[in-house]
Amino acid sequence: MTPNLHLWLIPLLPLIGAAINGLLGRRLSRQAVTGIALAFCGAAFAMALGVAIQFSALPLPYTEALAHWIRAGTFQADFAFYLDQLSLVMLLVVTGVGFLIHIYAVGYMWEEGGFYRFFSYLNLFMFFMLTLILASNYLLMFIGWEGVGLASYLLIGFWFTKDSAASAGKKAFVVNRIGDFGFLIALFLLIKHFGSLDFDQVFRLVQPLSPEIASAGLLTTVGLLLLVGACGKSAQIPLYVWLPDAMEGPTPVSALIHAATMVTAGVYMVARSHVIFERAPIALTAVAIIGTLTALFAATIGVCQTDIKKVLAYSTISQLGYMFMACGVAAFSAAIFHLMTHAFFKGLLFLAAGSVIHAVGGEQDMRRMGGLRHRIPWTFWTMTAATFAIAGFPPFAGFFSKDAILFKAFTSPHGSWVYWAIGVFTAFLTSFYMFRLWFLTFFGEYRGAESAGHDGHLLSGAPVSHGHGAIHESPKVMLVPLVILAVLSVCGGWVGSERFDRFLAPVFHRLEFKLVAAPAFLDGPHAVMPPTPEPNTEGPSETAFTLISVSAAALGLLLAWLLYLRRPQLPQEIAHALGGFYQAVLNKYYIDELYAVLFVRPLVDGSTKILWHGIDQGVIDATVDHGADAARKVSDSVRHMQSGNLRSYAGWVALGAGAVIGYMIWIGAR
Amino acid sequence: MLHLIVFLVFGAICVAGAVNLLVQSHPINSALSLIAVMGSLAVEYLLLGAEFVAVVQVIIYAGAIMVLFVFVIMLLNAGAEERTKGSQVALILGVPGTMLGSLLSAWVLLRHSGTRSVHVGAMPGPPKEIAQLLFHDFLLPFEVTSILVLIAIMGAVVLAAHSDSAPQPRKEG
Amino acid sequence: MVPLSYYLVLSGILFTCGVTGFLIKRNIITIFMSIELMLNGVNLSFVAFAAQWHTLSGQVFVFFVMVVAAAEAAVGLAIIIAVYRTCDTLNVDQINLLKL
């Protein structure tokens, strides 16, 4: 007997929290708002844990239908939820890391205005993200997709009175929308050719198709369009430009949305649609190429950034590129593994960066930090764990997942040594810029103003400083999540990529997709799971790969130590020597300016000249104005009849009477 | 035959009086010619046998209404009309329009009303018969018109009364 | 024997003269008299038809017309007196307070 898990409650609980805080929060005390937000988010996490505990007893995939939604002819889409190994992993990551970040945000945002609004938006985001993950059809997933974009906009522009924050929110939303356009067209194609958007139904129909090779067919088109959507949401080339600007939002927002959860939605969607991608090699290659290029591109930019949050932003883009590269070589479970570990250490990195910023009273430029490791020890040690994790040093979490990706990039039938080589170089760069950040922030001498706390103005992503003179550690409510995430960053990879692969194999190697009926109670055979594929390389080769990637990481650490601790004047000299190239990288390759010239400027000008002046003013307003004008002119001329002159009135009456009489005579005479 | 001649003579007087009304510039002359019109109309009514109406015409119209007109003319000391620029509409459209309408009507009437003739005294209208109708069939209009006259009297008194009931500003020394 | 149409033509002529007088005269009392002329013309037409159709209702109606004409004359002349008091003129072209 299949237990009813009430999956629909998991997204709904944060929604209720968002509603309560949003509608009533203005009148509640901070404690009450905190309690509500944490209670509902925690309840969702608790339910997710409950689901995980019961997981082995469930027939999979588990579906649950909540309500009818669209029934239009043969097309049908319902509010239905879906649980399998993939969704479980995502669910635990999102609710777990989300809950920790909620706790952290209580401390971080405690002295901010709009406290209730922040937590309302945060809970709203959780609702949409959970809907996205648990949806059993593309349409419900799209609702979650759009919703997280909305929540992202609201939270990036949280300090909306600040111009740069409002613009950043707008930019994020617009660029996301461009991706969503591609996603929508893909959905339309799916409806047209497969008649449904339900995962199991679509995949059941796609499953028997053979891979399209020479000519790009339907599946390739769908795959490429889905990729466009994923690029928008997960900040890949060419739609990544919103993520660095999104650092205008508060740091917990950057941690939750732009590191751990929302930006991974694209990876999740690609992984979920693996059936389509596996049968469209061209699309798969496109995914891999874009992922690899993005990883390299963003890493090079990250090397030169001076704002601590911007470094982490470009790092996120780069790591997402890794996940896409993994998907592109059909190593989906490796991508999800990296997604999970990335959520741990990137979330931790952002939260710790927030703690650092909080400690130095709002300063975000690393050139004005330094030597903080003795003053904020807890932050230092947790951030150290995260930095080693992201660089890929064993036995930290990032090592296992990144190594798995690089290995699969080389050995997969869709892979190529080019991906691997670029991946290794990017790993070196990642290690370099992360340790650069580490050294600049925590080592050396403190280069900031001593009275760092007295800066009252609002920097991007920083809370209002509370005027403490000294550099101080963050409160416990902010430190506890850091510690928990640090533990996860250390141990999170120990499950090992093989065990992870085996766990996710029923999703990615499924041979049979049965039709999912409306009731939640399933009878009939479960999905057939083939035996776990053995790794098809010999042991020593794999060790060789591991050695190479670890040495790349070590090289990065060495170089960073050299340039930023040993000989701090070297970076300047190198920058001078590289001259124009350095300037280009420093200015993010002028991509934003290029987009402005190519797209933004023509759009704004066209809109102003054609749509506003031309149509709105020239046609619509003119029609109304001319209509009114004509009415006025007519009445002006008719007005002269009202002359107040008795005789002219009499004349008109006589004329009219004569006309009527004449007409009646004419009628009578016929 | 005699009827025709009498009709034509008094008809001519009617028309002459009407035209004179138009032509004269002093209103008192117009009033007097109107009295002449009414008198000859009374004769026309007699020709048609409506004796009560003819008498009432003379008494009421010529005897009361026209007297009222003459009184007002004398009261207001109306002089001869000046030539002022009036309405072009009235002159250009009204007069020719009226002419056209009346000519058309006359033409139609003469062509289509046949050769039915009216005897002299064709419809005798003794007062007794009229009273019969008035107090039986037309009682309601009769009563209503009497109220109408009452209202008219009150209205005339109010309108024409001197406006010394309005508070005058005190002329202080 | 006078054909009915002669009476009607006479009535028409009187009516036309009344309308013309209304249109071309400038003294307001004369205009009023033209109205009376119009009414008389109509009265003649009523009586003629009464004679033709042998019904007394036509004459009774003439009676009513006369009563109404009397009432109207009374009120109208009172109005003229009131207007003369305010505008100090009997020239209808100068009584144009209703001009827009």
Describe the secondary-structure layout.
The complex is a heterotrimer of chains A (670), B (173) and C (100).
Chain A: H1 9-24, H2 30-53, E1 62-72, E2 75-83, H3 85-108, H4 115-134, H5 138-156, H6 163-194, H7 199-206, H8 218-234, H9 242-245, H10 251-260, H11 265-272, H12 274-278, H13 281-304, H14 308-328, H15 332-359, H16 377-391, H17 397-411, H18 417-442, H19 476-491, H20 497-508, H21 539-566, H22 570-578, H23 580-586, H24 591-639, H25 646-669
Antiparallel strand pairs in A: 1-2
Helix pairs in contact in A: 1-2, 1-4, 2-3, 2-4, 3-4, 3-10, 3-15, 3-19, 4-5, 5-6, 6-8, 8-11, 8-13, 10-15, 13-14, 13-18, 14-15, 14-17, 14-18, 15-16, 15-17, 15-19, 15-20, 16-18, 16-19, 17-18, 17-21, 18-21
Chain B: H1 2-23, H2 27-47, H3 51-76, H4 88-112, E1 117-118, H5 127-136, H6 139-160
Helix pairs in contact in B: 1-2, 2-3
Chain C: E1 2-3, H1 4-24, H2 28-53, H3 57-87
Helix pairs in contact in C: 1-2, 2-3
Describe the structure.
The complex is a heterotrimer of chains A (670), B (173) and C (100). Helix content of chain A is 69%, strand content 3%. Chain A has helices at 9-24, 30-53, 85-108, 115-134, 138-156, 163-194, 199-206, 218-234, 242-245, 251-260, 265-272, 274-278, 281-304, 308-328, 332-359, 377-391, 397-411, 417-442, 476-491, 497-508, 539-566, 570-578, 580-586, 591-639, 646-669; strands spanning 62-72, 75-83. Residues 451-461 and 516-540 of chain A have low confidence and may be disordered. Chain B is globular and about 55 Å long. Chain B has helices at residues 2-23, 27-47, 51-76, 88-112, 127-136, 139-160; one strand spanning 117-118. With 173 residues, chain B is mainly α. In chain B, helix 1 (2-23) runs antiparallel to helix 2 and helix 2 packs antiparallel against helix 3 (51-76). Chain C has one domain: Helix Hairpins (Orthogonal Bundle), CATH 1.10.287. The radius of gyration of chain C is 17 Å and the shape is elongated. The N and C termini of chain C lie far apart (55 Å). Chain C has 100 residues and is an all-alpha fold. Chains in contact: A-B, A-C, B-C.
